[in-house]
Specification:
By secondary structure, the chain is mainly α. The protein contains 17 helices and no strands.
Length: 342
């Protein structure tokens, strides 16, 4: 029931009939549908673009951000579509995070061993602290630095949008962070055996799709280990968001402090992981959930792109990009050191 109330609170007032704005008893889908249709069209363009030579390396999520930015900055975003765009950016992204739980079981985490989990956790924590600290030293906005830190250390775009629920950064910061971590998310082989390479890839590469591609390129065993190690990082998204929420509450005594330390979608993600671990879920269902997750994430990031102002992105300068590159080098080198010497 709390999820329903949070759902209602996140919908813009413009999405409700005037006589129900105060009570928020029902949705005016006529106000939301135009924006969802626009977001869906951009999502379709992003998926189609991956069939074009040279674009297959990029996830549909980053392509959707770029397509959304081009549309909004060239043609302009229609006013009547804004409610649906906001709905896609907030609600669809959060439901996508929940559905990520169908890709992970506790048994998978156990399968890489205590050492493997330790490498993943140590890499995540060290990378997050390094990125936040370096961001402060070189003058990157704290919220943008947190987004880059989460995207690099956990799971790319998914972690960025989840973290932004508690950091409440600008849309342009979300776009900049997604673009930065995606840019540095494709890496080369390192001459490791299949087990070691899989563990390294899962502990260091940003996006799930990139991890799977890099892992299986080096062999089946490498791909399977890489996928499990990566999903173990995804599982750590929940405690990371809770920790950032608690930090935000300490910094503010007003609206942020009133928010729960664990957002409903994080609790739901943990519940889905537990369900997936205890109850056998058919492979067909998991496959459908994985596709739905990718589509929702892509739609949400298309909405982010539609609300991003290129002039605002340029005003951020190159320091955040340098921070993302430094974080990329750190996580790759740090995890490689742990894999080789533990």
């Amino acid at each position: 029931m709390s999820s329903v109330s949070h759902f209602a609170n996140d919908i813009p007032k413009s999405a409700f009939p005037a006589d129900l704005t105060r009570g928020r008893k029902s949705l005016n889908w006529n106000g939301i549908v135009p924006g969802i249709v626009l977001v869906t069209m951009i999502t379709a363009v992003a998926f189609s673009a991956r069939n074009v030579s040279g674009f297959a390396l990029f996830s549909p999520m980053i392509l959707a951000v770029v397509a959304g930015m081009i549309y909004s900055n060239v043609l302009g975003t229609p006013v009547h579509a804004k409610a649906g765009i906001a709905f896609s950016q907030k609600r669809l992204l959060r439901f996508a995070i929940v559905l990520l739980g169908f890709q992970l079981t506790l048994g998978q985490v156990v399968s890489i061993g205590a050492g493997g989990v330790g490498i993943v956790a140590a890499t995540l924590g060290a990378t997050f602290v390094f990125t936040i600290t370096l961001g402060r030293l070189i003058g990157v906005d704290a919220k943008l630095a947190q987004l880059i830190a989460a995207g690099t250390s956990i799971c790319g775009a998914s972690a960025i949008v989840a973290t932004n629920i508690v950091t409440d950064a600008r849309d342009e910061d979300v776009t900049y962070a997604v673009a930065s971590i995606t840019l540095f998310g494709t890496v080369a082989m390192l001459g490791l055996d299949q087990h070691a390479f899989g563990l390294w890839a899962g502990a260091s590469i940003h996006e799930v799709a990139q991890v799977i591609g890099a892992g299986f390129q080096n062999g089946t065993q490498s791909g399977e280990i890489a996928t499990v190690a990566k999903l173990t990082r995804v599982a750590m998204l929940a405690p990371m968001v809770v920790a950032l929420g608690l930090m935000a509450r300490r910094r503010s005594s007003s609206e942020v402090a009133a928010r729960p330390p664990m957002p409903w979608f994080v609790a739901a993600f943990v519940a889905i992981v537990a369900l997936n671990s205890l109850v056998p879920v058919p492979a067909e269902v998991k496959s459908a959930m994985a596709l739905a997750t990718t589509i929702m994430l892509t739609m949400g990031l298309a909405a982010v792109g539609l609300q991003a102002d290129i002039s605002q992105l340029r005003s951020r300068g190159l320091r955040p990009l340098a921070l993302a590159f430094s974080a990329f080098l750190f996580i790759g080198c740090f995890s490689l050191m742990l894999v080789k010497f533990t």
